[in-house]
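Reading a protein record of the kind used here takes only a little practice. The integers have meaning only within a learned vocabulary of local backbone shapes. With that in mind, consider the following protein and its fold in token form:
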Amino acid sequence: MKKYILSLLLLSCMIASHTWAAAPDFEIPEMKIYANAEECKADNELVAKISQYLFTTELPEDAAYARSAISFVTSWVQASDEILISLSEQTTGHFFSCDPNLSIILLGTYICGCTRYNREVLTSKEFTFEMHYYALEATLRYYEKNNKFLGQCKKMDKMLKSLHKGKLRKEQERLFAVSVKD
């Protein structure tokens, strides 16, 4: 299921239309298909930099670069043996309550958030609650900053309210515990 969703995300990002944008201060390569996990290691630092960049992008100016960033990082995650991400109904199902195009962007942003956490904070490849929550909060802030361009999603707006009220962490801890049991 994970590979199917990630493949769908990659395909959607590849065929998405590009807009003119201000370039980042480094090159985001074309999406790669890695032959094995060993090939991924050569791009570890680049993936960290790209993941960091995504959360600083301003849409719509950087839309093309954001799509490229999501595609590249998602491709790396699929092949890497240095990170595990669980895409369960409890951890990522809320993204699919949005418009399909927005869902793809939000899921890709979440994957970049997990990757950023993995590269900068975590010393283990395991998918933990802290990784999930870090990625979810970063994705919600990205959505909040760019929702005029991305479009509205009632589920994301509800989660943002919960985040601002300080209730999201507790709600997510409960959902994450359920996902670990499954």
Notes: Confidence is low (pLDDT under 50) at residues 14-21. The radius of gyration is 15 Å. The CA atoms of residues 154 and 165 lie 17 Å apart. The chain has nine helices and no strands.
